[in-house]
Amino acid sequence: MIFATDYTKKVHSVVIFFTYMVEIKIATLSDAALIADISRETFHATFAAHNSKADMDKFLSEQFCKEQLIAEVGAAGNIFLLAYTDGIPAGYVFLKDGTHLALQTTQAIEISRLYSRTSFIGKGIGKILIEASIARARKMAKDCIWLGVWEHNQRAINFYLKFGFEKFSEHDFTLGDDIQKDWLMKLMV
Asked: CATH assignment of 24-141, given 3.40.630.30, 3.40.309.10, 3.30.70.1130, 3.40.50.620?
């Protein structure tokens, strides 16, 4: 799938208009190392300032090692969509077939991760990955797409709210040895 995304940037009182062509491809096992690299890079950039080094190191080594990602990429019901712009990996979304007990439907799919590399934040990659996720959910005849987001990640919460996601519950998220709270958000599709 090919998408175009536009964004503007203000440089010295001049607004510059950019258009990116973004290619979305379904990941294969050969992409597991790339997904692990993107995961560690973006998770660290987003959350290291808010967590201890020990908790970050433990989480990254357990959750984003190549072996773990190979298992996830190869598992039934899991879909990884990689976003490329000009041949450069810009981010990915990990979709996991399944519902949550607090939802009123069994026809749901979870956005388990949506990561955009730091240099691509604000350039429409996340928007394209959300749109591709919603399209995939509809193609699979799902009526709900849901996700978990850290309660203190206001930028991400605002991003999901723009797409119509709403909070439906909360759950604990363990980062290293630290128990944190995630909002659970859903969008009926």
From this structure: 3.40.630.30
